[in-house]
Specification:
Elements: E1 3-8, H1 12-19, E2 29-31, E3 39-46, H2 49-57, E4 64-68, E5 73-75, E6 79-85, H3 88-98, E7 113-119, E8 138-142, E9 144-153, E10 156-166
């Protein structure tokens, strides 16, 4: 069975901005690649493709804007990331539509982020301090979500978009 998740992919200009960030050689740190840069909305694990596709097609959420930044942060001593705001309502709609698919949804609140690097050793971690705080800011429209298959390998993972689902018209205030 394929290993699947739902994600938002930044456009090329945002990927270019991320690619321009410093990527120093830090012992024990594995940098993610441009092809891996996405924001995960929901992870399913191993699940039948048609089951996940059908559930994802039922998502009801308005198009929105994603806001990258304002600076590089970290999750503990293992993950270097850039926060991404603006996707909470879309993530909530994805979870609501797919709650019976694959692994149960995470019980914690959604924290949109794009992973830049991970510590190679899960137990030890890495001193990420010098990398944290670098400013990076971008905004882009989000009008679709993608069902993605993850192919694991020795260098991390390769991702293949297997389906794209359009979001509804943005809501206007007033």
């Amino acid at each position: 069975m394929p290993r699947l998740f739902v994600a938002v992919w930044p456009p090329d200009d945002v990927l270019d901005l991320i690619a321009a960030l410093p990527r120093p050689d830090v012992d024990g740190l594995r940098w993610t690649t441009r092809e891996q840069w996405h924001i995960t909305l929901r992870f399913f694990g191993a699940v039948e493709l048609e089951v996940a596709s059908a559930a994802l097609r039922s998502v009801s959420a308005a198009a929105t804007s994603a806001v990258l930044g304002p600076e590089i942060g970290r999750f503990g001593k293992r993950v270097l990331h850039v926060p991404v705001a603006g996707l909470d309502a879309v993530a909530k709609a994805v979870v609501r539509a797919t709650k019976k698919v694959g692994k149960p949804p995470e019980p914690r609140p959604f924290k949109g982020h794009l992973t830049l690097a991970r510590a190679r050793d899960r137990r030890r971690g890495v001193d990420l301090g010098p990398l944290v705080g670098t400013q990076v800011i971008a905004e882009w429209p989000v009008s679709e979500v993608c069902l993605v298959e993850s192919h694991l390998n020795s260098k991390g993972a390769n991702y293949e978009v297997v389906e794209t689902v359009s979001l509804g018209e943005p809501r206007t205030m007033g």
